[in-house]
Structure formats: structure tokens, C-alpha cells
Amino acid sequence: MFLLDKAGVIYAANESAARSFSGPKEALVGRNIRDLVALGVATHLSDMAFDTHAGIQTTYKYEHDGMWFEVGFGPVRDAQGAAAAFAVFSRDITAQRRAAETLEQSQRTFAAAFENAPIGMALVSPNLSFLRVNHALEAILGRPESELLAISPMELIHADELPRVSEIASEAARLDSPTAEFAARYKHAGGEYFPAQVNASVVRGADGTPNYYVVQVQDLTERQRAEQELIEAQKVQTVGRLAAGIAHDFNNLLQAMLLQIQLLGSGVLGAEAATMATAEIEDQIQRGKSLVRQLLLFARRDTARPEQLDLNELVASASRMLGRLVPSNITFSQQLDSEPRYVDGDRNQLEQVLVNLVVNAAHAMHDGGTLVIRTGRENEDS
Fold it and tell me: What is the Cα–Cα distance from 367 to 371, expressed in whole angstroms?
């Protein structure tokens, strides 16, 4: 701190002022404040500051040699209220200035990353209203930021999924976990819903309460379409393997039936042998129907016929077909319970479940291995 007369000459200074100039405070006394160019004050003090009638009291910040100072000055009045002298206060604010610059740079970096992110991003308040959205989210939702800021993100979620998402949001605010993830259907401005993956990070204040959420929204429409196309391609490949096996079995059936028909037509068979040949032909026809049903499972055009079924028998009878669904680097086997395991259901639909299980498992076994279907009771007390 300095004390100046009305001409700006220093007549008193404290130790802090002396340290600013790396010398004794006595060396400052008698010097004019306007001559202290190193301090930087001279360029900021004006004649008005020493006007005995103006009575100005003000502060300003300035930089010198990479350091920042905050300076305040004002009149010291005599008993009559006139400005008899001036007091100058100087405070080093370099650390605060650098912290503010670091914060400002961090905010600029976040803003740039936020606006230019390739996925939708939003800042959402604790009461679940939009605070800010980026361009990608505007494009995903088909709505401008001005429209989104007037609504809640919850208004865009499909009604069937709203209770689940509301509970997730409540838990994210209540629990210590800093993030929450969920999938939901969001409404586009055009009225249609699209699947999205949402990741939300909770930014908390010093007291632990949420200040806001940083939300990322990714449109899954194209990904799901690509996944479905891959599934269909894999299904076609699987049907090809199945059809090849069925064609081979059909050929064997036709050959067996042709032989029996030729024997019947030759007249060489007796009555009993002819009856057995007819029964054999009927059995081959039933096997042919079973092969057709296997193909219908993939077309899903068969009619449901609920009945009581033994899972052991179901798996055993379907094992030949299921074995055709796996590539050569996978060994297919079954482990059936020693006791019958009855369920009520449609045979074709249950066989479809087995087919789906085997196909999905085989697709996940890229390096091959052993695929086992096991029957039994999960809970012996049930």
C-alpha cells in the first residue's frame, strides 16, 4: 500500500509495497507514483484521479512481466471532507488470473468437443430439461436447439419405456455411480421412433448433489439394420446347409420308396410282405413330412399345435437336423436327463427355439469347439 499526496508523491509505503520493488520501503518515499513505470500504475492513473474535487475511488487490473496485479486507489479526506491525499492498494492476482485462463481454455476445449462431436450430446439439468444440445443431436432428433430447450428429454421417450428410464435417471441422481447407460426409443420430429443408446454422466457440486448431466445419444438405426442383414445372411447360409442335408435325406427316402413300389408292382411279394412294404412306404412318407416341417421352421408358416412333450424325446428327434446347422469345426452333442422332462408347448415352435439356440451358439464359436444341448430341471424343488 502507498500513501500519496495530491501531486502523486509517495510519502508512506508498507513492507509489501517495498517487496514489490525488491528494496526498502524508505527508497519509495519521495518518488512520484507516475515515475514507477515498472509497477505499471503510471499509465493508468490520470489527472482526474488526483482531482481534489472528483473524489474518485476505483480499481483496475494490469499485467507486468508476466504477473497480474489488482490496484485500487481513492482519496483520503481531511476533517473538512476534502481529498488531502490518496491511498493506493496493490494485490498480486497472478495465480487467480492463470487459474481463470486455464478454466476458460478448458471451457473452450469442452465447447469445441461438444459442438463437433459425431454423436448427439446434451447438457441436462437435474430436473431433466435440456440446457444445451449440439448439432449432431439436433440432426438425430430433427429439431433445432431452440425447440429442444423448451421441452424435457423425457417427452421424447416412448411411453412404454418411460417408467424404466425415469427409474434409471432417479438412481443416477441418488447413487454414487457417476454414469448411467440405457437403450430407449426416441421420437423424431417426423413422428417416428428410432432406437438409441444413451450414456449419461453426472456432474456433481461440492455437496454431492447433481449440477447437471452430460448425455450422449447414439442413433442405433443403421447398426440394427446392419446386424439384421448379417443375421439374415447367416440364416441363408444355415438354410443352405440344412437344405443340402434334407435333399440328401429326401433322395434316400425316394430311393427306398421306389424300391418298395417296384417290389409291389412286380407281384413277387406275398400278402404279408406286401403289407410290410406298404407300411415301410408310409413310414418313409412320414419321414418326408418331418423333413418338410424342418424347412417350415425357418419360414415360420406352420400352425401351432400345443401338446404335452418330453424334452428328451424332442431333443433326440431333432438332433439330426440340429447337427446339420453347425459347421465342421464344431462338434454337436446332447446330454439328456435320465428322467422324462415334460412341458406343454408346440413341437414346431420348441424345435424353432432349439434351432435358434444352436445357430446363435454356432455363430459365436468362431474357433470351433463342442456344442452341447443338455436337458434337466433347473431347480429340483420346483
Answer: 12
